[in-house]
Amino acid sequence: MSITVEAAKPRIGGIVHVDKDHLLDDETIETVRHELEQRGVLVFPQINASDELQLAFTDKLGDRVNFTRQVPGSDASSPDVYKITLDRALNSEPDYVLGTFFWHIDGITIDQPLPKATVLSARKLSDSGGATEFANLYAAWDLLPEAEKRALENLTVIHSVEAAVRPVHGHPSEERRARYKAMAAVMEQPLVWTHEDGRKSLLLGTHADGIVGMPGPHGRALLTRLQQWAAQPELVYTHNWTVGDLVIWNNQGVMHRVVPYTDEGRVMHRTTIAGKEKPGHAATEEHIQRIFEIA
C-alpha cells in the first residue's frame, strides 16, 4: 500500500504518509475521501505541492469552485488559487483574512451548495502565530445530551459576512457594509444539518448572527455557548505549519480559525472542492430584522 494514515487525535485529524508522486493515484484519492469523512482533517507533511499539483489533487476529488473572485488575492498567480496573505501588494483589503482569526466555515454566506472541502498549502510562514485550528462539528453534535439535541433540532440561524468581520471592525462604515452585501448573501442555515448520508453536524461560526424566532441576545448567547462546546480541546486539532505542508478538511463538518499573526510575508494557497448539498437558503428581510430584536 502506497498510502498510510495515522490518527492525529482520537476524534479529529489524520496524518497522511504518501509520496508526492503517488498523490494523484486512485488508491490515494479513495483513501482521502474515506478518511476525510472519518477524521475531518488530513495533513500531508512537507509534500511541497505546486499550484499545478494542488489543483490536480483538488480536481481528482471533485469539481473545483472559486467563491472569492471578488476578494483581493484571488487568482493572483494561478486560476482558482486564492493567496491568503496580509501582504498589501496582493491584498489591499485585509478584512477577509483578518476575519479568519475567528471560527468559521468557508462559503457559508454564499447562496450555493456549501463547499465540500478546502485544500490549503503553506508557502511562507509568519515568525509567530499562524497555526490553524480545526473543530469537529459532527462530534460536537454527537456528544450533546439527547434532551439538548431535541431542543436544537429545528432551529435556523442567520449567517452573514458582516457578522463574520464584526470582530475586525466593530461597526463597519456604510461603504464597507455595502461591499460585504455585494460580496455574499445573508443566509438562513439549519443549526443542525442532516446530511444526505444521514449523519448530523452543527453549523456554527462567527458569521452566525442570530437564531430565527429568538430575541437577539438569547440567540447569540446560545450560539456562543454551542461554539464553545464545539471548540472543546478533545474536538480540536491544531496544526502548526511547516513550509510545504498541505492540509485538506471536510468543510461541511469542520469549522476552523487561524491563530492571529501580523507578518505580511505569510502566504498560504487555497483551493476548494465544490459540494452538492445546500443546507440553507437566502434569508428573508423579516427574519434578518427579527434577530436584532431584544424581546
UniProtKB/TrEMBL annotation:
Residues 10-272 form the TauD/TfdA-like domain. It comes from the Bacteria. One of its GO terms (molecular function) is dioxygenase activity. The keyword Phosphoprotein does not apply. Keywords: Dioxygenase, Iron, Metal-binding, Oxidoreductase. Belongs to the TfdA dioxygenase family. This is TauD/TfdA family dioxygenase.
